[in-house]
Amino acid sequence: MSNVHSKNFYEILGIERGADARTVKKAYFTLVRRYPPETAPKEFQKIREAYEVLSNDDSRRDYDSVGFNTNDGETSSRLADAMAAMDGGRFSDARLILAALVKEQPSLAFARDLLGLTWLRDKMYPNAMAVFSGLVKEHPDNGAYVLHLGYSQHAQQLFAEAEASFRAAAQRSREDVRPLTALADCLMDQRKWDEALQALDAAINLDGAVDFRDFALFTRKLEAEAGRNNPAGLKAVLEALKAIYPPDEAGRRFVANRLAALAAPLFAQKRPDEANLLMREAAALDPRRATGQMPTSFTLEIDSLPETSKQWLAAERTRPSPMKMVGSPRAGAIAALVLLVPLIALILWGAFDGRRPLSPGELAAFGASVLVLLLCATWAVLRLIDVARSPYHRYTTVHPFYLLQVDLDTVTAWPLTNLHDVRLTHHYTNGAYSTTNVHLVFAKRTFNTSIHGKEKAVAWADQLLAARRRMLEAMHSGLSEERNPGARSGASSSLRGRWPPSPRCSRWC
Predict the structure, then answer these.
(1) pTM score, two decimals?
(2) Average pLDDT of the residues in 203-217
(3) Alpha-carbon dihedral 90, 41, 146, 227, rounded to 10 degrees
(4) Measured between alpha carbons, how far is residue 446 from residues 20, 418, 423, 477 in Å?
(5) Which runs of E-coded beta strand occur in 250-295?
(6) DSSP string, 346-394
(7) What does the alpha-carbon distance between residue 111 and residue 96 come to, in Å, rounded to a whole number?
């Protein structure tokens, strides 16, 4: 029986020490079905490492000679300590143990490979490449060592060398999907989209079955189709993907989150139609997302929001923030009253000053004019009453997901995913600076405002773009579960995580 938490590779795969190659492979594929990389990455990594060693004759012979061998208890113990440190992410600690062990026993290729992996996962790629180059020179038929060499080359953008290594690893390990996947990633980083798609199709069909184990490969196909700006290809991959959707709710929600994460780069590239195609498919899988369409903007009555949202909006009104622009909701009403009251008095005085009697038509005109002006005055008074009662007043601020315009009892949200352009125009009067006009383009609509102060306007625009970048980073990393815009959380979310500089290169970690 398998024990994925064991440090013993045989116990991880749940096989006997004398198991043949066919049994090793069968155990591996059985466990991968139970622990796919998308939903159980840690378990999958341990299963993959065990299979990688035990499926290769040289690595297995090396492992059997020292790995957890009761006749060499010290070496086994040190290897176990090193692997435990690697499992805990303490690669420098593992490296100290392995370096000492390799110095004492330089023939331990298994330990040298682990040493190279510690360099690789600490992003010390030249050191890793030196270790793997030596291993490949001594064991040219070992596909795992060639694959690891390709990883270290790809991470340094040595694309030609990495591509050659991945192709060689695929030839040596014909039943291993990882060399083909790594090759596709390398080709995509070189914008060789057609070749990448061919490698991904080969990987998907490698075991003769297309199922949910291939989900990560399908997501790469989506990236490739998006990369070559092919909406028709994107739709075709989505249609093919539907055939392997998991039946359970948790699995479908996971797929929905991944599709929403893939939409983030498309929003960043100002391609909202393709991004929203992925968002709509995510919504079909997870009903909590409603339509999944990311609108250009939407307006809501504040009273219709959850209580936490209303509290956040009320608190934001008085919270100091360089991203907030406060408006004056009373200004229009007061100006209207200042103008309307004398105007009404003037009309009444003109109508009844007694110089001459008014005709019925003139009386009707005066009456209509006074009625209209009284209605306007009534609106102004009611507006002032609403301002006095409202805990929100009027302001514009930046939420982690939206640019928000609050106006007494309504809030208009502009999703930052749709922010395509920011333009600042400084205005001068008689040679003296007066104000800066801020022109924002959200997909097909525009938002305009004015800010007094050049430096303030530039800083505000920079921070707005930074907020958009953080939002897309979090969305791409899956840290921001995109919900239907109607489910607007009022709390300002803490957006953790960073967009990896080379997300494809990091997938083997």
Answers:
(1) 0.66
(2) 86
(3) -120
(4) 66, 11, 11, 29
(5) none
(6) HHHHHHSSSSSPPPHHHHHHHHHHHHHHHHHHHHHHHHHHHHHH-SS-E
(7) 12
DSSP 311: H
* Three-state secondary structure readout of 187-201: HHHCCCHHHHHHHHH
pLDDT, position 187: 96
* DSSP codes joined into one string, 193-242: HHHHHHHHHHHHTTTS--SGGGHHHHHHHHHHHHHTT-HHHHHHHHHHHG
Measured in degrees and rounded to the nearest 5, phi and psi for residue 398 equal: -115, 115
Residue 267 reports pLDDT greater than 80:
yes
What stretch of H or E contains 301? strand 298-301
* Gap between the terminal Cα atoms of the chain: 27
User: Are 237 and 222 contacting, i.e. CB atoms less than 8 angstroms apart?
Assistant: yes
What's the CA gap between 381 and 392, in Å, rounded? 18
Q: Is 190 in contact with 176 (CB distance < 8 Å)?
A: no
Which amino acid is it at 131? V
Q: Give helix 177-189 / helix 159-172 axis angle, nearest 10°.
A: 160
Q: Bigger pLDDT: 173 or 92?
A: 92
Amino acid residing at 244? I
Q: Identify the bridge partners of residue 396 per DSSP, sorted by sequence position.
A: 325, 405
